[in-house]
TrEMBL record:
The lineage of its organism: Eukaryota, Fungi, Fungi incertae sedis, Mucoromycota, Mortierellomycotina. Belongs to the short-chain dehydrogenases/reductases (SDR) family. GO terms for biological process: fatty acid elongation. SUPFAM superfamilies: NAD(P)-binding Rossmann-fold domains. Substrate binds at residue 198. Pathway: Lipid metabolism; fatty acid biosynthesis. One of its GO terms (molecular function) is ketoreductase activity. Its EC number is 1.1.1.330. It is an enzyme of class 1 (oxidoreductase). Keywords: Endoplasmic reticulum, Fatty acid biosynthesis, Fatty acid metabolism, Lipid biosynthesis, Lipid metabolism, Membrane, NADP, Oxidoreductase, Transmembrane, Transmembrane helix. This is Very-long-chain 3-oxoacyl-CoA reductase.
Length: 336
């Protein structure tokens, strides 16, 4: 009899344990499913802050760095289409002039432009830009300008000037630009700072280590100043960007995961204040396929897995880039 009672009690315990683990498992799966659902709701159904809050159509200005090509040019065009006046910054004066004219003619907005090379980190350049901005009510800053390694390269072999340029453009420029515009934003208790980040900042990327580190800096710094500036009425949004067709990415054709700058920037500007696929504060992954990729990175496999994945991808890209360099060198030698 005792044996039977003991057996019944033991099987009851097993059933309870299975039920508890079942409930925990189902809760875990439901939690994950809900977090994915929230991502999809953000990117497909919800609308972010309207740019009227930032003075669109009422004389407000936006400043975009790296505004003459790729993602930055698209920010300038789409912000102008929302009736923001625009300050454009990049190196090439002729391109700046042409885009400023295009914006004025197409969207009847005011424009200013300033040519500077951010790699120089010149105080005189930043002071000159500050003077241009003093006469504008700047409500939106897009820290878009960025530079990358020429090809995936082991850190110890990377040239000092490329390392310096990445730090100067991707880190120092964002901080200096923010220092220039934030005092007037604080005074008005109104402003938006968009920092164009990268998946390379989300998952460390071997062989693009300095670029990857610079975007990780941007992510962490955005979250820190995001919390500082929120009570002062300023919203900071670091934007996690996977590949986009551009000169920098050297990708020419769009695909499901790689949009053209136009739909990409449309997704950014329509989701201000929303997180999309990002799980860190003051961060957004707004493009739908990037958002799902971000969710997968955060929720499937370990970070070590994704770092190794990036290692494998970059080593493959490096091999192809080196073969291309060899072909080009051979062709050049032949033509001499
Ligand atoms: N494309 C992607 O797949 C991708 C992915 C993740 C993140 N991002 C980020 O997105 C941002 C924009 O990239 P993009 O792909 O649009 O680049 P892009 O097409 O190469 O355009 C770069 C823009 O920046 C300007 N610029 C470049 N170096 C400059 C410098 N030293 N000083 C001043 N202006 C400079 C260029 O104009 P000038 O040549 O006239 O100066 C151009 O307007 C970067 O921060 C990048 O890290 C891009």
């Amino acid at each position: 009899m005792d044996k039977i009672t003991h057996f019944v009690q033991k099987s009851d315990c097993n059933a309870i344990a299975v039920a508890i683990f079942g409930v925990i498992g189902a809760g875990f799966v439901a939690f994950k499913a809900l977090s994915l659902l929230k991502v999809l709701v953000d990117v497909f159904l919800r609308s972010g802050t309207n740019f009227k809050k930032y003075g669109a159509g009422r004389g407000g200005w936006a400043i975009v760095t790296g505004a003459t090509d790729g993602i930055g040019k698209e920010f300038a065009l789409q912000l102008a289409s929302k009736k923001m006046n625009l300050v454009l910054v990049s190196r090439t004066e002729s391109k700046l002039k042409a885009i400023a004219k295009e914006l004025e003619e197409k969207y009847s907005v005011q424009t200013k432009y300033y040519a500077m090379d951010f790699t120089k980190g010149s105080d005189a350049d930043y002071q000159g830009l500050q003077q241009v901005l003093n006469s504008c009510e700047v409500n939106v800053l897009v820290n878009n300008v960025g530079t990358n390694h020429e090809i995936p390269t082991p850190f110890e072999q990377e040239s000092d000037h490329i390392v310096k340029n990445i730090i100067e453009v991707n880190i120092n420029a964002a901080m200096k630009m923010t220092k220039i515009v934030v005092p007037q934003m604080i005074e008005r208790k109104n402003g938006l700072i968009i920092n164009v980040g990268s998946f390379a900042g989300l998952v460390p990327t071997p062989f693009l280590s300095v670029y990857s580190g610079s975007k990780a800096f941007l992510s962490s710094w955005s979250q820190a100043i995001g919390a500082e500036l929120k009570p002062k009425g300023i919203h900071v949004q670091n934007v996690n960007t996977f590949f986009v067709v551009s000169a920098m990415s050297r990708i020419r054709r769009a695909s499901l995961l790689i949009p053209m700058p136009k739909p990409y920037v449309r997704s950014v500007l329509s989701q201000i204040g929303l997180s999309g696929g990002a799980s860190t504060p003051f961060t957004s992954t707004p493009f739908y396929s990037h958002a799902v990729a971000n969710w997968l990175i955060d929720n499937v496999f370990s970070r070590a897995f994704w770092v190794q994945h990036n290692y494998n991808v970059q080593i493959d890209i490096r091999k192809r880039a080196l073969r291309k360099r060899e072909r080009e060198a051979a062709a050049a030698a032949k033509n001499q």
